[in-house]
Amino acid sequence: MRKWLLATLSALVITAGAAVGDPTLARAEWALDKAAAPYKGTEINIIFLDRPGYRAIIKLLPEFEKKTGIKVNYEIVPYENSREKQVLNFSSKGDLTMALVDLVWIGEFAENGWIVPIEKFTSDASITDPGLDLKGFFPLLLDAFGSWGGKVYGLPFDNYSGLLFYNKCMLKDAGFDKPPATWQDLYTTYAPKLTNPEKKQYAFALQSLRGETQSADSFMRVLWPFGGSLLDKTFHSNLMSKESQTGLKFRQDLMKYMPPGVVSYDHVEAVNALAQGQVAMITEWSAFYGTLTDPKTSKLGDCLAVAPEPAGPAGRLPALGGFSLAVASQASPQQQKASWLFIQWATSEDIARAYVEAGGVSGRSSVYEQADIKAKYKFVEPMVASWQKGVPEFRPRFPAWAAISEIVAEVGSKMMLGEVSTEDGAKQIGARMEDILKKEGYYDGKKALRQ
Questions:
Q1: CA–CA separation, 248 vs 126, rounded Å?
Q2: Measured distance between the N- and C-terminal CA atoms of the chain, rounded to whole angstroms
Q3: Which of 158, 162, 160, 142 is nearest to 150 (CA)?
Q4: What are 93-129's pLDDT values in tens digits?
Q5: What is the DSSP pairing of strand 304-308 with strand 147-148?
């Protein structure tokens, strides 16, 4: 799977990039305000999440609207409802002109024809910035978040790497001068010294709320580092493998060092637990750095530190997550072009620095090469390092993921609550998951070759 993804990446970037035109073309000949002139007064619509990256782009929106005359209407929706809301809108030919595409939705959105390949727009020089430069994105992000079937559909926008955020003051008080390098170190050496239930202080919190948070941020997070995986190469369940079971059992054991009720923690609760000094460490997305450094929401101050996610027996395999912005096929031709102008602007190198400074995480590599950015934002170096060798298949990106995710979330929550063992839970997930994949045609040799 990974080899196919990486093999096609170069080809699709070259194909899409070639359509943009001569990269040496003087940008003075193209300007956003001039390109947007025919679309002045056009309204475009999108769903945003209540997360730092979206608050950052909202902060910068007046600049785009003033320059282009295009009105960007957005609705802030909880992540757990965002896919369903978009699917209903696209299925009923609603008013969304853009799609916010999680990396695990790209297959579903593309194969249903809800989003448009960017080649439709890059072939039009009047609406495509000659400085678009797809090679300026981290290849991993462009591949995992925006590409499907050899075509680019969306541009990386809200980009995540799993990182270890920790309270270095709490660690120092417990006798540690550096964070745990491995999950086993965290469990065996660090966690016992950092947990004091009487003071309501705990070593670690793993966001595990039922839904995509449980399936992606909790369940899947303990598979890869331990050498396990959801599926094997034949698209059958791999959850009963020794490696997968080791990871899932490790999660159960680690719970004794987590706050009571952690199974109901979403990202907000996990981040807040660290921010308020209730836990010493969390593994969270890079996008929450802004929340943890904001004195209005965090007590950490200089005690905040960031490191790569701990390594497991299979090595350091951090979580990968994020979204792309894509043009919706249901939009009118005028709205599609206006939406494409917005997507280019929101993901451009021109605003990458301002976006990062406002709390976002850009998918552009050049901004993280700036010395002052690396010095100011502690998350940059571990995040960039993880994007050099991350795994796009951390979560399956095929259309069947949405249905499988619900099963993993349901049974994964029961595992953590002790209502089902890791073995019985794995068998339940495997049987139900394979039933879905069989109905979807993954065992007839056709779909498997496409992933």
A1: 52
A2: 6
A3: 142
A4: 999 999 999 988 999 999 999 999 999 999 999 999 9
A5: unpaired
How many other CB atoms are there within 10 angstroms of residue 316's CB atom?
17
Distance CA 168, CA 274 (A): 11
* Structure tokens belonging to residue 130: 């000659």
| Averaged pLDDT score across all residues of the chain | 91
Answer yes or no: are the C-beta atoms of 230 and 247 closer than 8 Å. no
* Architecture per CATH, 2-159+322-393: 3-Layer(aba) Sandwich (3.40)
Q: Quick check: 261 and 347 in contact, CB under 8 A? A: no
pLDDT above 90: residue 4: no
3-class SS string, the chain: CHHHHHHHHHHHHHHHHHHHCCCCCCHHHCCHHHHHHHHCCCEEEEEECCCHHHHHHHHHHHHHHHHHCCEEEEEECCHHHHHHHHHHHHHCCCCCCEEEEECCCHHHHHHCCCECCCHHHHCCCCCCCCCCCHHHECHHHHHHHHEECCEECEEEEEEEEEEEEEEHHHHHHCCCCCCCCEHHHHHHHHHHHHCEHHHCEEEEECCCCCCHHHHHHHHHHHCHHHCCCCECCCCCECCCCHHHHHHHHHHHHHHHHCCCCHHHCCHHHHHHHHHCCCEEEEEEEHHHHHHHHCCCCCCCHHHEEEEECCEECCECCCCEEEEEEEEECCCCHHHHHHHHHHHHHHCCCCCHHHHHHCCCCCCECHHHHCHHHHHHCCCHHHHHHHHHCCCHHHCCCCCCHHHHHHHHHHHHHHHHCCCCCHHHHHHHHHHHHHHHHHHHCCCCCCCHHHC
- Distances 349 to 144, 216, 240, 366 between C-alpha atoms, Å: 19, 29, 45, 8
Using one digit for the tens of pLDDT, what is the confidence trace for 238-249?
999 999 999 999
Residue 28 CA, distance from chain mean position: 34
For 28-59, b/e burial (b = at least 16 CB within 10 A) is: eebebeebbeebeebebbbbbbebbbbbbbee
Q: State the amino acid at position 331 in one-letter form.
A: A
Half-sphere exposure at residue 203, Cβ-oriented, CA atoms within 13 angstroms: 21
How far is residue 149 from each of residues 7, 8, 110, 126, measured CA to CA in Å? 12, 9, 9, 27
25: pLDDT strictly greater than 50: no
446: exposed, middle or buried (Cβ count in 10 Å: 0-12, 13-18, 19+): exposed
Spatial separation of the C-alpha atoms in residues 140 and 145, rounded to whole Å: 8
Neighbours of 92 (CB within 10 A): 9
